[in-house]
Amino acid sequence: MNNFNFKIPQEIICGQDSILKLPEILKKQQLKKVMIISGPNLNKMGVVKKITDILSCEGIEFVTFVEIEANPSVETVDLATKAFLASEADSIIALGGGSPIDVAKAVGVLAKYGGSITEYEGADKVPGTIIPMIVIPTTAGTGSEVTAFSVITDRKRNYKLTVFSYELIPAYAILDPNLVMTSPVKTAAACGIDALVHAIEAYLSKAASPFSDAMAEKAMELIGKNIRLFVADRQNEKAAENMLYGSMFAGIAFAWARLGNVHAMAHPLGGYFDVPHGVANAILLPVVLEYNALADEGRYEKIYHYIKNNKGTDNFIPEILVAEIRKLTKALGIPENLTTVGVTEDLIPAMAIDAMKSGNIAINPRITTQKDIEELYQRAL
Fold first, then answer.
1. Burial of 316 (0-12, 13-18, 19+ CB in 10 A)
2. Is residue 240 part of a domain?
3. CB atoms < 10 A from the CB of 3, how many?
4. Under a CB-based contact definition with an 8 Å cutoff, are residues 377 and 351 in contact?
5. pTM of the model
6. Could you read off the pLDDT of 102-122 as tens digits, one per residue?
7. What total of structural domains would you count in the chain?
8. Do residues 225 and 347 both lie within one domain?
9. What are phi and psi of 95, to 5 degrees?
10. To 10 degrees, what angle do helices 237-257 and 210-232 make?
11. Where do the Fe-containing alcohol dehydrogenase-like C-terminal domain residues begin and end (predicted)?
């Protein structure tokens, strides 16, 4: 067993209407003015207004930056940082899925330490604590509210850079199931599979520990029992709650065990072809699981039982899990291959080079070369 360490340096508030505790959290930290970082769709849907109404009722000053796109860019981070500094706010509320949360983390770094987010690419380059932040997820998928990562697209390189530092973990997260119940069906499906991939890759990682295993197993249990129900009906309160909590547990798992080939390969798909992250993960998952089956030490069967919701399978082989994942993604309406989302063969070598730069390759359960990555992209086409 690997030596391991962990900590949970956050306060996480869960439950229906838990966003009403937001003013209490801000006052507890003696924060006077907050910037809300979110996206245009959430703004149009009135989700941002829900937060601003709560703040207004308590006389808390706020400003908003609601221009965060999918696969957010270095330029967007720069714009949001300038807006934050000009506003003289002292804190950030990140409202949304992974994109607004990733930008908020990056702004939290740059507003305090300056420079470009590209200067912090890699591990442990953030010198200390960042701007105080409260994260409110509106999707059950990314787990970004509990992770130490910020992923930002560098358009100049067609590359998704990753900033990794435990300083990025927000001090507070509010998990209110009411907010994820507004998810469109495609978002619910893609984000739900994204959360499942987080749990599976953390569970199979060479860096897994008893702590991360416990988080991953609970995540797979909650997601396996609820993802179909939630995608079928986002107004199913219990399914929404369980998906949100499952996503959070999966986030904690991969914050400490990291991920694998699926995520290493998914980021270039976003950088070169703007494929939504959850969709990229969902398409790649069965392909990578099939490749990693050679290294399975019995965990594929456990994963299968969480997804299938049964307790026993005679004569289990890893291919049974692969087939079940394909069946699940098809039922949820996920595209079956990369060709259907606009990916072309000519950029596979370039994407493979970028994928190999990911630290996730080193902890994938099966040793992987650049040639292997190219072949896996070919299979996924």
1. middle
2. yes
3. 5
4. yes
5. 0.90
6. 999 999 999 999 999 999 999
7. 2
8. yes
9. -120, 115
10. 150
11. 189-380
